[in-house]
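TASK: fixed-backbone design
INPUT:
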């Protein structure tokens, strides 16, 4: 922080002429002691200090310095216990402050400014931007960032995880956005890039090697604990936090990614290029684009592929949700191929089902045909299916059925009645009505129906009309062909005999 010239002059005058000490000047001028020392030190003025008073730690200082020189990371608590055994009587809190001043510091290290050729290198890393609530799930919001080292052009794409599939997809989208591929990509030692490292021996992630073989780039990890070697992507992530993400509102992940792309092509591309202040990043990138490797003719096969096991019910568990499969494949091991939009369930090369991907948790995603075929195959599943549907729509129905069963009521008829009410009034209203019936101590569909009617009349809605008539009602309303009445007419001869 720059100190005003008039304040500098005042500090120098009070110190040299009035003989004020550093602490007095700091208190009276309302500045920090370090600022006063910096002014006095920069002007070569002698600093008036009082002689140091003897301290309890002085006899133990040589021992502490020697111990810290040998074990520089030894904790102050352990050092305090060691000097207590040697006769020290000081308090632990003050001792920690003294040890902080004695602890050896690593020497300052100088770094060379690295310059890269156009199209030669890009740097890649993940950035964590909090969490995004989706229904009952709380997904991490991860930013995939790639920066061209020469032009500083930024690619930004947000994902709801940092899995290998998202990592590879970020590369493919970045190469498509740059319309080219850098020759070398620098990574930190994250598991998506490096599985194991022993010195110079590196075992890369096979997925990353397959991607590198397809796009013909060289993956290169930086040295361990040497984040300065990929400082351009580190600074880009900090720039994204401050310039793009801070205070931004968005509707969903797609909206956020659309805003991120517009920001990369707008604000981020129009900033000043560090190599030449007369040019922008956009102009530097236009000059670098021709030096990038050409994109391959065929796209890289993306998608997360995992093996899943189907249990007794026709569902597979993937990413906290259950997806339906045909009932003929229970007790089998299948494969899930998933991307951001779809979850495909495969048996070998045959696709059994395709579901829209759900980012919530604890959901049951079904294809109606799968369930219907199971119901047709096993008619006993109808009742269980009704209870399961009720439990999903109105969780309080389980308590109502339990209390009705304790009274000896027919659970099948109660389930059917509640399902009819569910179709007419909807799940939220049914849940509230069941809770009202349970509170009144009447676990019966009639009490639920009365509660629904009271709520409907209170808000002034018309009575609901069932769109589909029950089967027995439909049979009653079937058109009846009238019987011919000719057979009831008597012949004329019989009428004449009766007249006689």
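OUTPUT:
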């Amino acid at each position: 922080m720059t100190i005003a010239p008039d304040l500098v002059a005042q500090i120098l005058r009070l110190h040299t002429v009035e003989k004020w000490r550093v602490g007095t000047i700091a208190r009276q001028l309302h500045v920090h002691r370090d600022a006063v020392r910096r002014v006095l030190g920069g002007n070569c003025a002698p600093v008036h200090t009082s002689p140091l008073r003897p301290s309890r730690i002085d006899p133990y200082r040589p021992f502490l310095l020697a111990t810290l020189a040998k074990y520089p990371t030894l904790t102050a608590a352990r050092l305090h216990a060691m000097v207590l055994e040697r006769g020290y009587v000081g308090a632990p809190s003050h001792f920690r402050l003294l040890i902080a001043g004695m602890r050896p510091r690593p020497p300052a290290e100088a770094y060379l400014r690295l310059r890269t050729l156009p199209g030669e290198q890009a740097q890649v890393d993940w950035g964590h931007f909090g969490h995004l609530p989706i229904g009952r799930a709380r997904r991490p919001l991860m930013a995939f960032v790639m920066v061209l080292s020469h032009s500083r052009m930024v690619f930004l794409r947000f994902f709801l995880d940092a899995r290998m599939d998202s990592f590879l997809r970020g590369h493919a989208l970045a190469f498509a956005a740059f319309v080219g591929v850098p020759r070398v990509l620098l990574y930190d030692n994250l598991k998506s890039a490096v599985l194991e490292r022993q010195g110079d021996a590196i075992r890369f992630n096979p997925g990353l090697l397959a991607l590198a073989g397809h796009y013909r780039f060289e993956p290169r990890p930086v040295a361990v604990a040497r984040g300065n070697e990929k400082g351009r992507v580190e600074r880009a992530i900090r720039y994204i936090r401050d310039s793009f993400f801070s205070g931004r509102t968005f509707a969903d992940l797609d909206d956020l990614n659309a805003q991120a792309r517009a920001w990369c092509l707008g604000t981020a591309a129009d900033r000043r290029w560090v190599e030449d202040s007369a040019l922008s990043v956009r102009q530097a990138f236009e000059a670098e684009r021709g030096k990038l490797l050409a994109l391959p003719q065929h796209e890289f096969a993306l998608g997360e592929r995992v093996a899943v096991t189907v249990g007794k019910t026709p569902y597979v568990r993937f990413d906290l949700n259950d997806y339906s499969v045909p009932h003929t494949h229970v007790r089998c091991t299948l494969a899930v191929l998933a991307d951001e939009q779809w979850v495909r369930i495969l048996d070998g090369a045959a696709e059994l089902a395709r579901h829209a991907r759900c980012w919530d948790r604890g959901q049951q995603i079904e294809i109606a045909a799968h369930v219907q075929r199971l119901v047709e195959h096993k008619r006993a599943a109808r009742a269980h299916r009704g209870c399961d549907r009720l439990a999903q729509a109105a969780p309080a129905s389980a308590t109502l059925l339990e209390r009705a069963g304790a009274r000896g009521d027919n659970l099948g008829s109660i389930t059917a009645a509640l399902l009819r009410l569910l179709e007419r009034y909807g799940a939220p209203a049914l849940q509230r009505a069941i809770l009202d019936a349970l509170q009144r101590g009447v676990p019966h569909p009639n009490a639920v129906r009365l509660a629904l009617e009271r709520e409907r009349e209170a808000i002034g809605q018309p009575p609901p009309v069932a769109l589909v008539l029950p089967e027995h009602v439909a049979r009653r309303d079937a058109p009846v062909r009238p019987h011919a009445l000719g057979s009831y007419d008597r012949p004329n001869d019989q009428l004449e005999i009766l007249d006689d």
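COMMENT: The CA atoms of residues 475 and 481 lie 14 Å apart.
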